Amino acid sequence: MQKDKDLSGDRDWDRFNGIGMTSPRARARMVAQLREKGIHDETVLAAMNAVPRHIFVEESLASRAYDNTPLPIGYNQTISQPWVVARMTELARQGKKLRSVLEIGSGSGYQTAVLALVADRVYTVERIGVLVAKARRHLRDLKLTNVAIKHGDGSATMDELLQVDAIVVTAGATALPEALLEHLEIGGRMVVPLAEEGNPERQRLTVIERTATGFKEETLDPVRFVPLLPGTA
User: Fold this and answer.
1) DSSP-derived 3-state class of residue 213
2) What is the bridge-based pairing of β-strands 98-104 and 164-169?
């Protein structure tokens, strides 16, 4: 098996290594499964191998952290399954270096941490205040200083000056969040779980790419996310 490069740098992440189902070996098995399931971007796989997912879930669920399954994080929210996190990150990158990413839906910060290892700067917005506090604590513990997290409404227009290479929406939208598209640079991509027309229960990962003449849309994998909701809590 190919050995993943270490993206944890000098952050002393060894202190987060557990034993048994929370050990680096469990994380390596997860990454091997992601390869088998079609994730090919080695930079993304290295990030998945580096980030200790078990610290982003409740202690009672830590033994399941490296299973390929979503897990509850409270407030009717979930931490996405590892394959979905890897797939969305891979689609956002498209094999290119990311300078800046906007994430809508920080949750407890796991997808944020993965993005922080593959991009120079991450801007992330979470509508639930308690989860903002959790995400901030986790990202601070991991010494990820290239993340700006905000408590706010991710379905609303952001700072009009914000321009990013990629947008990752981690909640299911019933309609394309068009206000966010204005923040994409030309050549940038938005990855969003979008409900099928006429059937809001069926979602597919959708990639919107901004070109010099407009936007291109590609519909991909079936997924299931909690809904993208307006307002804050």
Assistant:
1) coil
2) parallel
pLDDT tens for each residue of 32-87 = 999 999 999 999 999 999 999 999 999 999 999 999 999 999 999 999 999 999 99
C-beta separation of 83 from 69 below 8 A: no
75: which DSSP letter? T
Q: Kindly state the greatest CA–CA separation across the chain.
A: 52
Condensed to tens digits (0 to 9), the pLDDT of residues 142-190 reads 999 999 999 998 776 677 789 999 999 999 999 999 889 999 999 999 9
Q: Where are the alpha helices (DSSP H) in the chain?
A: 24-36, 42-50, 82-93, 110-118, 129-141, 178-181
Closest to 31 in 3D by CA, of 59, 55, 52, 17: 52
Residues annotated as catalytic are 80
The residue to which tokens 């982003």 are assigned = 56
**What's the CA gap between 124 and 179, in Å, rounded?**
16
